Amino acid sequence: MGATTAVKAQVKLAEIFSPAAIRLSLENRTKLGVIEELVAHLIEIGSLKAEGKAALVTSIMAREKLGTTALGNGIAFPHCHSGFAERFVGALAVDKRGVLFNAVDGAPVFAVFLLVVPLEEREQQYELLGKITAIGRDKGQRLQLRGCRTPEAVHDLLRDLD
User: Fold this and answer.
1) How far out from the chain centre does Cα 78 lie?
2) What confidence tens digit (pLDDT) does each residue in 107-153 have?
């Protein structure tokens, strides 16, 4: 028999962005402030350890300096690889007011998908970023996301999109 190759399970948005990790408003109005707020939220809900906070914020901001993760249409996906994450960890903020995130189209961002990726999960990272980018390209999905009134409704939408 031939050699078998391990097939990794598909990573799902609804598994990474649990209802507890979803916020419907942001206190901060700047890119750095939003990233700090979402990392702090992940620590508050027990998804990340507090000792990694400064390193994670620094790593995510370093990635943003390479090029904005706000590719237009109101969606941003700041992210980094980190040894502080043993699995994919994410926080999602849907903010009706929008925040300035240096988007390529200059428009405010209404949905911020913050993602912390384990060091060895590069392939699945691209799959996830592709799913998030697809939401940004689909006006109907963007409007559905912005129309959600509870974290559970956002989570249900993500599950439907998976």
Assistant:
1) 6
2) 999 999 999 999 887 778 888 999 999 999 999 999 999 999 999 99
Task: DSSP for the chain, please give it.
Answer: -PPP---PPPP-HHHHS-GGGEES--S--SHHHHHHHHHHHHHHTTSS-GGGHHHHHHHHHHHHHHS-SEEETTEE--EEEETT-SS-EEEEEEEEEEE----TT-PPEEEEEEEEEETT-HHHHHHHHHHHHHHHH-HHHHHHHHH--SHHHHHHHHHHH-
List domains and CATH numbers for the chain: 21-161 (3.40.930.10)
Question: pTM of the prediction?
Answer: 0.92
Q: Which residues of 21-53 are buried (b: 16+ CB within 10 A; e: fewer)?
A: bbbeebeeeebeebbbbbbebbbeeebbeeebb
The string of DSSP letters for 68-95 reads -SEEETTEE--EEEETT-SS-EEEEEEE
Query: Strand 109-118 to strand 89-99: parallel, antiparallel, or no bridges (unpaired)?
Result: antiparallel
